[in-house]
Amino acid sequence: MSSVTVGSHGHGDSKSGHGKHDHGHSAAHGHADAHGHGHAAGFISTYVFSKDHKVIGIQFLFSTLIWFLVGGLLALAVRWQLAWPWSNVPLLEHLYTAEGGQMAPETYTMLFTMHATVMIFLVIIPILAGAFGNYLIPLMIGADDMAFPTLNMLSYWFMWPAFFFFGGSFFTAGHGASSGWTSYPTLSSSPAAAPGSGTAQTMWLMGLTFVGVSSMMGSVNYMTTIIQMRAPGMSMFRMPLTIWSMFITAVLQAFALPVLTAAGFMQLMDRLWGTGFFTPEGSIINNTMHTAGGGQTLLWQHLFWFYSHPAVYIMILPAMGMVSDIIAVFARKPIFGYKPMVYSIAGIAGLGFIVWGHHMFVSGMNPMLGMTFMVSTMMIALPSAIKVFNWIGTLWGGHIQFATPMLFALSFVSMFIIGGLSGIFMAATPVDIFIHDTYFIVAHFHYVLFSGTAMGVFGAIYFWYPKMFGRMMNEGLGKIHFATTFILLNLVFFPMHVLGAVGFPRRLADPYHYDTFRFLKPLNQFMTICALLLVTVQVVFIFNFFYSMFFGKTAGRNPWRSNTLEWQTPSPPGHGNFDFQPVVYRGPYEYGSPEVSTDFYPQTQEPPPGVSNPPAHGH
Amino acid sequence: MTLTRNLTQQLFGLQSCIGLTVLVCLFALTGCDGSPPARFHLNMVAQSKERVDEANQQQVADILTAMFGTPDNPFVLPETGLDINKLRRAAGPVSSDKIGQRTGLYREHCVHCHGISGDGMGPTAAFLKPYPRDFRQGVFKFKSNALNAMPTDEDLMRTLKHGLENSAMPSFEVALPPADLEALAEYVKYLSMRGQTELALIAQVFETVDDDDKDKRLLSSSREMLLDTVLLPIAEQWQNANDSVVRPEEPPADFGSLASIEKGRQLFFGNKGGCVKCHGTTALGDGQTTDFDAWSKLVIDAKAAAEGTIEKQPGAREALSKKIAEFEARKNKVGKAEPFASPEAEQEAKDSIAEDEKTYVENEFFSHMQLRAIDEFSLPPRNIEPRNLRMGYYRGGRRPIDIYYRLATGIYGTPMPGIAGPAVTTEEIWNIVDYVLAVPLEPGGQLGADRTMAARERN
Amino acid sequence: MGKIWSLLFLLVLIGGVGCFLVAPSYNLTLPQDVSSHGHAIDHLYVFILVLTGVVFVATQAVFFWFLWKYDAANNREPVKYTHGSHTLEIVWTIIPAATLLFIALYQMNAWASSKMRMPNILPTVEVSARQFEWRLRYPGPDQILGTRDDLFHVNDLHIPVNEEILIDLKSQDVLHSFFLPNLRVKQDAVPGMKIPVWFKATETGSYDIVCAELCGWGHYKMKGRLVVQSRQDYDRWLQEMYKAQAQTASPPASEEDN
Q1: CB contact under 8 A, B247 and C250
Q2: Beta-strand (E) ranges in B289-365?
């Protein structure tokens, strides 16, 4: 009888015979039958309208990866115009409306708007929460599925209207929304303000609403599942950091999203029924007089950033969690400062709600208010710094294995340092006066979102791929993919810092007729060539992804010799996930523990006789 | 073991990587080379209106290419008086590689509104209010000379330099050096002359086409015809633009005084000026608002002409049905119908029906094609809005002399008439100028003493 | 292989520092500052650049060193089985917190002088942003906006040197942002609001006015010019402009003969 630390379920008494990851247990002993799904299910209910969190996770993964490609191509078209303005864009020139094959300026505004929209709303947010959140949460906490499987299925299928609206908007007048992903009124709220502010903008708002609905369904589910469905012994402080970050992300989503949804509806009403929430008195746009007035354009910015600043953390926290897990596995060492890591995630989330005004330092908001937001913004750098120090601490004295997932995770840390530090420039209000809306900010968020999150996501794909598909991804190709991506992304994004220092503004279709910026063209051409190569080398990843699915090395249950629960299941896990009842005896990062002779110590492994179970975590 | 394996894997990866890179690059290159050179569009609205057939359209296009070249490679006859060097600077694809010298100015700054042919139908055009100008009719609004004269160089330069306030036409004074602006003004003249030439050629086709023998191509392409009948009259109009510049007497001594403004007000609201008909009794531009400008009118006329083709055969459809019914009745000997006397007679009736059907279908088909062409090559006509004078915008400029031009000669292409004449003296026009400049400063105007807005008050 | 990967990460350190060291010699740095308050902003920028540079170098160097040293292929020592250090956590919380708080307090004065301490003078000019131009209105000789003698101009903003300038910034349609890179001024123009912007230019010359907030399809072409002139030149320019705006005669015929 082992002394299990009692988890939330209060299973003090575990079934005997469950020591190590016991392969001997038949599926019948598992949970598959107990849950009423997956029996004689047809193809449609198994693979299309599936309620299995793993299938839904993989559906999210495929959908978002396809959109990732779309978003990348949009970015290339943007880069093309920046390097060779008004020249013919290869391949895409026939889609553009301008005569002689060159891009029309409104097409350029559409391109960067839709690039950001696709990347943020259809790639980063759903790939983190939708794909990995879905796939990993039940597996890592020892549950058989999500708390609400039907809701979970709906959360995926509610993305499809969003796909339809965003995708369909390319085929309307203006070829897509073109008022920036921030959709600031009155440019966005008045159909007269831009060619893309007509039907396309309405569709954009509808798409946004559906993404919100999907996210909200997901958050409710994740929170409930994590609170209610942890395996016996899985106390909150025995959860892997991935789960912690998913949990806090879900909380962030749940509290911030309603505001965006409300704001979106207000803008929709402004557009469709002329309510004038955001339209001030007497504005005449493109010689079109607006019937209603008395609104405030700044209101939208407050509401939008009240969601979208927390959303920035929604876009990075899960990646931080996954990277923490990957680093611990490949450093073969417990994570350094588990609890500070958890607290700093919570700290980022908490502070994340009171920093939105730093997007509005020069917006006309009261400068006194700007000062307040500046202080809170400075402070939010602190938990991020703590996380970086702890990651580096984790590497100290480890046995670092440079597998592909680890390389991506390490690059996340290295790149996040850059993205974090450049944030301090923007937080400093006087400096922000100069660099606001320049390429400095473009560099900053690409370092956080591409070099950070996207690299973390690549790492996570390489890491959990064997669990998802039962086969390993090719290491050689993986390393080529990593090395080329890593070098090229730095060549694309690092020079943006110096561009920003010159004051090079973002979102200009042709910045070179300003005398101040004319000399920056060669540098931009260099960056564009690197960006073209960067997208091209992703072909290696696409090939590896599909090739390995059929011809990769069979993975087995635990190819990385990892501690967390998902690796104790078959690869890929069947319905109901576990073929035994998992009982958790310790935290997720007990690598190199002196208690056992192996360098890993799965959470489900019963401690050897005579060893009292260590506390959940701590020092 | 593992090393070799790793290496082979890596090499394999490398190969596919390089292969695909090359593939993508090749694709990109073919994209670059494969794009067709820019071409001028035909004026399909005019072509459709005059029912120019395809052979003649091709002929018009060939003549125009011979006379004016292509967008990438413009050409002008000396008779036009245009400077080819300036045109080369404005034409062609955007390029700034050569040191200092930039070419392709028109496509860098103008094409997305005014279109490659100067038809005012660039990709951005449909969305703008007002629509960008279609240069091809040689109709320009803001000029210093007679109503239907071509604009002077100075008029064009002024528009380029200062833009047209409250339209999408920007001011280029700061953006471009004077030499570039001159090149662009020259290019506008070039596009305009080209468009006018096209219209003249279409008119020639219309006049000379032989209804009985449509295959006969009657458009003469002799040098004399093209130069003397078509090009020279157009070129002369442009070269004589300066002859009709309006040079009014100096304004009266009390110009700018309250008395003068009051006189202007009386004239504005009185019958003499006739301003209220369109600008309204409030000067808010809310009088007559159902009229169209010349460019919209052309589209409306062309559409009416196309639709008229169908309407020209009123009852054609009914007559045809009746004829068919009668034929069927006779053939099948229904009721009192008289049977056909012989198979030849039956065949004859059948052929007659087939011919009528063919004509009917051809006419209808042609009309639909016309309408489609017009829709594709024109923007939906919009009503012209008389200026709301309380806003304080003066599109053609706010100097008293600008407003004088507008009042004296009118605005070409719009319902705004010139009022200079025996009934209205120069002094009276100056009075109205005075009033028009004062309206936005009156209560309710937009230029008056600053109204408190929802501003953030500090200190 | 581990060493090679470590070196790849070292490249970030070398490249990052190198980029910022080399950039100034290619003029890739803050543009020339011709304002009286700009040096405070530039100083803060450099201060933060140095500070973050030090943190960047330190963290990336340690990061590289750990990767190099603890490569599983070479590291024969047993794994350091530790769950963290309370002392270290406190140290690396307090020090950054203190630094960040210091930066926050240190910059407040520069912010206040740029955005909060409005000079008590009459506005020099009203700048009204519109898709896609800067509409300018100078008060006439009577110094009051909204009278017949107001001077209207577009995109071409002239100001006198070494004098405090107050601008009333408005927008007629959508959001714009009035950005003077050389004067370290940026302020969004918000429809429905009149926002004061002030600065003092210290050198004569011609500088760009950039629109820095997406305002529609023509955002990129919303270029203006700021001309800083001596008081005499400025006054002369104003007189010429007044005269041109009051023009009541057609240009003389002789000029047109060509």
Answers
A1: yes
A2: none
- The distance of C5 to chain B (nearest Cα, Å) reads 15
Return the structure tokens found at B341.
Answer: 């006397």
Q: Is A194 on the interface with B (CB under 8 A)?
A: yes
ipTM of the complex: 0.94
Beta pairing partners, C226: C157, C207
Model pTM score: 0.89
pLDDT of the residue at B228: 84
Query: Per the CB < 8 Å rule, is A109 touching C216?
Result: yes
Could you give the CA distance from residue A256 to residue C223 in angstroms, rounded to a whole number? 38
Chains that touch C (3 or more CB pairs under 8 A): A, B
The sheet carrying C156-160 orders its strands as C156-160, C224-229, C205-211, C176-180, C185-189
Closest C-alpha to A463, from A483, A478, A481, A441 = A478
Q: Which amino acid is at B39?
A: R
Beta carbons within 10 angstroms of residue B38's beta carbon? 21
Question: Amino acid identity, residue B198?
Answer: E
DSSP B226: I
Note whether B171 contacts A: Cβ–Cβ < 8 A.
no
Please report residues of B whose CB lies closer than 8 A to that of C5.
none
Percentages (nearest 5) of helix, strand, coil residues in chain B = 55, 0, 45
**Cβ of B383 under 8 Å from any chain A Cβ?**
no
Nearest to B171 among C133, C249, C258 (CB): C133
Contact A88 B175 (CB under 8 A): no
Question: What digits encode the pLDDT tens for the residues A466-511?
Answer: 999 999 999 999 999 999 999 999 999 999 999 999 999 999 999 9
Contact between A410 and A460 under an 8 Å Cβ cutoff? The reply is: no
Residue C138 at interface with chain B, using a CB cutoff of 8 Å? no
Domain B246-291+384-455: CATH superfamily is Cytochrome c-like domain (1.10.760.10)
Q: Which residues of C touch A395 (CB under 8 A)?
A: 63, 66-67, 70
Residues of chain A with pLDDT under 50: 1-38, 616-619
Domain residue ranges of chain B, discontinuous segments joined by +? 2-241, 246-291+384-455, 294-376
Q: Where are the beta strands (DSSP E) in C89-184?
A: 125-130, 133-138, 151-154, 156-160, 164-171, 176-180
What are the phi and psi torsion angles at A471 (to 5°)? -130, 155
Contact criterion met (CB below 8 Å) for B151 and B241: yes
- The nearest CA of chain B is from the CA of A94 a distance in Å of 9
Residue C55 touches partner A, C-beta closer than 8 Å: yes
Per-residue pLDDT at A24: 39
Q: Tell whether A554 is within 8 A of chain B (Cβ).
A: no
Q: What is the pLDDT of residue A97?
A: 52
Helix (H, G, I), strand (E, B) or coil at A12: coil
